[in-house]
Automatic annotation (TrEMBL):
Protein name: Type III pantothenate kinase
CDD domains, per the entry: ASKHA_NBD_PanK-III
HAMAP family associated with the record: Pantothen_kinase_3 (MF_01274)
Catalytic activity annotation: (R)-pantothenate + ATP = (R)-4'-phosphopantothenate + ADP + H(+)
UniProt binding sites for K(+): 129
Cofactor note: A monovalent cation. Ammonium or potassium.
Residues engaged in binding ATP: 6-13, 132
UniProt subcellular location: Cytoplasm
Needed co-factor(s): K(+); NH4(+)
Assembly behavior: Homodimer.
Function, as annotated: Catalyzes the phosphorylation of pantothenate (Pan), the first step in CoA biosynthesis.
């Protein structure tokens, strides 16, 4: 079994992969300052929840955009699983060409998403990841990442709204019943949701306007499920896309 770990700005997500099947996923808050022992305890508990033991783990691959977490997390893998994890980064074979100004600046999460999308859906694909930040990356027919876009995530924008105002409360990010809101909370939810949805659609339309070939739009990320049913411009929602990409990267670098 392969354990794939996506260390993001908000959550650390673990995926247990047997063959090509994802048999369990679990989330840990990234913001908490956990020790290696705490991470190790949570990992072994999650393995138990999926009816596995540390001895069932053949290898671990880690994709991280939070460097300060890596020391403790890597140490937990070495101590509790007895394995040195593979890290997605420079020197790791991905099968992708990266033709942007600074290829090393492409986040490991975006790279893994693109690898997963190209492996699963083929070329000419726009990958939209809705997380702490919202990213769009385009992969052409040859498996080349040619361009990308980064903007705020809806939760990040919402936190700025209630964090910088004296009387606006924190609200749940959810699809509102109507844009005709009659209270402060529902007005905030409707405003955040439809403003962000409009931005998503306009962004995808602009990609279509500037890329001459037709392409598939694949959305992923925890907040992608909030919008997937409200627009025809997203073709596929794949919550496990990053794990599919990490599995493909691992296969290309299998030790």
């Amino acid at each position: 079994m392969l354990v794939a770990v996506d260390i993001g700005n908000t959550n650390i997500v673990l995926g247990f992969i047997e063959g090509s099947r994802i048999v369990g996923t679990y989330r840990i808050s990234t913001k908490a300052h956990h020790t290696s022992d705490e991470y190790g305890l949570m990992i072994t508990q999650f393995l138990g929840f999926s009816h596995f033991t540390p001895d069932d783990v053949d290898d671990v691959i880690v994709c991280s955009v939070v460097p300060k977490v890596m020391h403790s997390f890597r140490a937990s893998i070495v101590k509790f699983l007895g394995l040195e994890p593979m890290i997605v980064g420079p020197g790791v074979k991905t099968g992708m060409n990266i033709r942007i100004d600074d290829p090393k600046s492409l986040g490991a999460d975006c790279l893994s998403d693109c690898v997963g999308a190209y492996a699963e859906y083929g070329g000419r694909v726009l990958v939209a990841d809705f997380g702490t930040a919202t990213t769009f990356n385009y992969v052409d027919a040859t498996g080349t990442i040619t361009c990308g876009l980064i903007t705020t995530g809806i939760r990040t924008a919402a936190a700025a709204l209630w964090g910088e105002t004296a009387q606006l409360p924190e609200v749940e990010i959810t699809r509102p019943r109507s844009v005709l809101a009659t209270g402060t909370k529902t007005a905030m939810q409707a405003g955040l949701y439809y403003n962000f949805l409009g931005g998503i659609e306009r962004t995808i339309q602009q990609f279509h306007a500037e890329i001459p070939e037709d392409f598939t739009v694949v959305a992923t990320g925890g907040l992608g499920r909030v919008f997937k049913d409200d627009t025809d411009l997203i073709d596929v929602y794949d919550p496990d896309l990053i794990f599919k990409g990490m599995e493909e990267i691992y296969r290309r670098n299998a030790r």
